[in-house]
């Protein structure tokens, strides 16, 4: 799964990396992003990449209860074409969530150690995601997203049995643009083309990351535990 991630680049690098000419308001580097928080998301706008600020935890547009978003921070890649909460967004509203790392926890004896998982190159990347727009009881529109998960890369398989789907850069355009309605067979073929990156590595970080209230650069520092 993915319950925390980082996006530590500045606006110019974010915009250039994803080809989004318009900068989103109120953006700042983040070192400990948690569910329910607002983050920039890349969507397709008539063939042009565009950044939108969205809340992490997808609320399907048909839902009567906005709290369902707390349960939909992740979606399994293997079932998004079938699950009622995700299948419409899979067909029409796919996105990329910019990041440069994510956190996972691994138990060593009595200690549960947080790890930051990054590309070996340390470059920024995009999680595969889905998005939707939900209107609350006052008619206020809320943009929300979920992050897809998949089987882990071999390099991090010992840490967790799932990982967020980090899309290869050459597949990003395909993921965003192909929005036609698909049959089950077509959906299977489409998803079969999307392969996650595998050049990942992990390093231990401080337990400061355990609290979403901590969002500062020192969380990223390599931390040595006395186990």
Low-confidence sequence ranges: none
Order of helices and strands: EHEEEEHEEEEEEHHE
Helicity level: 10-25%
Tell me the CATH architecture: Alpha-Beta Complex
CATH topology: hypothetical protein yedk fold
Q: Averaging pLDDT over every residue, what do you get?
A: 92
Number-wise, the strands total: 12
Terminal-residue CA separation: 25 Å
Write the layout of secondary structure elements.
Layout: E1 5-7, H1 11-18, E2 30-33, E3 38-45, E4 48-56, E5 74-76, H2 87-92, E6 94-99, E7 101-108, E8 111-119, E9 125-135, E10 141-150, E11 163-164, H3 172-177, H4 184-193, E12 200-204
Parallel strand pairs: 4-10, 5-10
Antiparallel strand pairs: 1-2, 1-7, 3-4, 6-9, 7-8, 8-12, 9-10, 10-11
Task: Walk me through this protein's architecture.
This protein is mainly beta. The chain has one domain (5-220): hypothetical protein yedk fold (Alpha-Beta Complex), CATH 3.90.1680.10. 13% of the residues lie in helices and 34% in strands.
Structure characteristics:
4 helices, 12 strands, seven-stranded mixed sheet, hypothetical protein yedk fold, about 230 residues, mainly beta
Question: What can be said about this structure in brief?
Answer:
The protein has 227 residues and is mostly beta strands. It has a single domain, classed as hypothetical protein yedk fold, CATH 3.90.1680. 13% of the residues lie in helices and 34% in strands.
